[in-house]
User: What shape does this take?
Amino acid sequence: MKDYDVIVIGAGINGLTVASYLQKAGLSVGVFEARGQCGAFCDTVELGQSGFLHNTHASWIVPAMSPAMADLELERYGLDLRGCDVLFAKPFRDQTNTLLALDSTWTQSSVARHSEHDAAVVAKIGAYQAEHGGEALEINRQMVFGAPTVDLADRVARFNDGLMRALDAPLSGDDIGRMTGFEILETLFESEHVKTLPGALGEFTGQWPLNRRVGPTVIGLAGFNPMAVHTAKGGSHALTHSLVKCFVAHGGEIWTTCPVEKILLEKGRAVGIRLSEDALIPGEEIRANTVVSNLTLVPTFLRLLGEEAIGAEWARRIKYFNYDDPQLLGVYWALEGDPVFASAKYDPGIQRCWVGYFGGDTLDSIRTIQAEAATGVVPSQTMGGWFNFTRADPTQAPPGCHTASAWMSVPPRPRRWRSKRLKGWNAWRQGLGEALADEITDLYEEFAPGFKDLIIERHINTPMDQENSNPSAIRAPRRSAGI
Ligand SMILES: Cc1cc2nc3c(=O)[nH]c(=O)nc-3n(C[C@H](O)[C@H](O)[C@H](O)COP(=O)(O)OP(=O)(O)OC[C@H]3O[C@@H](n4cnc5c(N)ncnc54)[C@H](O)[C@@H]3O)c2cc1C
Assistant: This one.
C-alpha cells in the first residue's frame, strides 16, 4: 500500500473533519476505520422495522456553530440541517410548559406567563448578549471548538462583568466563574418553571449545573437565546456522510474494516501504523509523516502506543483517566402517530418542538438526580431529555409515522437504584436497562397521555451497548471482573 502524508486513525466526525481540512490543504491523507462504516457515535440506524431511522448517539447536532460547515462546504456535500421554530420545551406536571422559541418575543411571553420578574431578567440578558453579539459568538466558538486558555477565561470574566452590571447584580465575572449553575439560576430567577429550563439544558449540553465553574455557560443558557442545534435530513449520520463526501471529493482515501493495532515509532516519532490481523489487509504496515488518532485517550496511548512507548508514569496516569462520569441511557420508539403533550392545551407551541426535557419540575429535583448520577446511584426520580425527530424531519419515519427517543443520565457503573443494590457494570447485563426504559415510557405517557397506544416498537441503548458498538469507547485496561 502507498504511503501518506497523514494517516488518521478512526473515521468518526472528528477524524473526518481533520482529514478533510488536511486533504483540502493539499496533503495526501488516508483514514483507517475499524468498523465497516464511518462515524460510530454519529450514526443513524434502523433498529427494527424498516423506514424508522434512529439516532443512537449524537442527536442534537451543532455543525451550524462550527467553522467546518462553511470551510468544508458541508451543505454542498448533502448536509441539510433541520429544526423547528420552537427550539426546546419543558412540560410540567401542572400541565403548563415553558418554551424556548426561535422568535425571542415568543420565549419572553412564555417566561412571563410564569413570572414577570424572570421575563425581565431574560430580556436584560438577551439585550446585553445582542448588543455584544460579536463577542458572545467568538467566546462561544472558542469555548466549544477551542482549547481552554487563561486568555479565554479572562475574556469570559470581562464579558460577565458587563452582564452583571446590566442586571444590577452585585456579582463580578470572576464570581460567576466560580459558581455552580444551580447557584446562578437560584440567584437570577424566582419561578421553578423558568429556572429548570436552563437547568435541564445544562444537563443536556454536558455543562452540568451541579459542577463548579460551569457558571459562565449556564448564565449563557439563562438568556434563553435561540440555539443553532439541529437534526439533519435523514438523521445525524447525514453529518458523517457529508464529511465522507467532502474528504473523498478532495482526493482522500478511507479504508473501512481496517482496525489499527499499533502506531509505529522510530526514534520516538510516529511514522506509520500497523493494521490488525482482523483487517481487510491483515497486518499491513503503512507509513506517513504524521499520524493523528481520533480515538479516546486509553485506546490511543495504552493500546496503539503502549507503555513501552509512553513510559510507566504516563501509562499510570492514563489508566486512571475517568471514564465513570454519567452517561446516557437511550430509549427509542417507532410510533404510528405524533404524541400530544397534555400541556399543549396551555401552549400548543410545544407540539411544534422536537426536543425538550420532562420530569424535574423543580431545580432541587434536577440537583438530586445529578448528584445521584455523579456518585454512582441511578436517579431515584425519572427525568430526562425527549426528542421527536420527525417533527423536524419527517423523512426519519415512513409517511404518517414518527420516531421518538428519550435520554436519562445514569452512572455507567451503578451501585444502587432506590433501595436496590446493583453490581456496577453488570447491572446492564441484568436487566437494569429494561426496568429504566419501562419507567421512561411511563414518564412519556404521563406527559403525553395516549403515548403508549402509539408505540409500534421500542429499543434500548445502555452505556454497555454504546461501549460495545464503538471500539474507541472501550476502556482499557479491560475490567476482568466486569464491574
Ligand atoms: C449516547 C450519546 C449521545 C450523544 N449525543 C450527542 C448529541 O446529541 N449532540 C452532540 O453534539 N454530541 C453527542 N454525543 C457526542 C458525540 O456523539 C461525539 O462527540 C462524537 O460523535 C464523537 O466523534 P469522534 O469522531 O470524536 O469519535 P467516534 O465517533 O467515537 O469515532 C471514533 C472512530 O474510531 C473508530 N475506531 C476505534 N478504534 C479503532 C482502531 N483501533 N482503528 C481504527 N478505527 C478505530 C471507531 O469505530 C469510530 O468510528 C453523544 C454521545 C453519546 C455516546
Summary: The chain has three domains: 4-53+236-319, 60-67+78-102+226-230+322-468, 116-194+209-221. The first strand starts at residue 4 and ends at 9. Confidence is low (pLDDT under 50) at residues 479-483. Residues 64 and 228 are 6 Å apart (CA to CA).
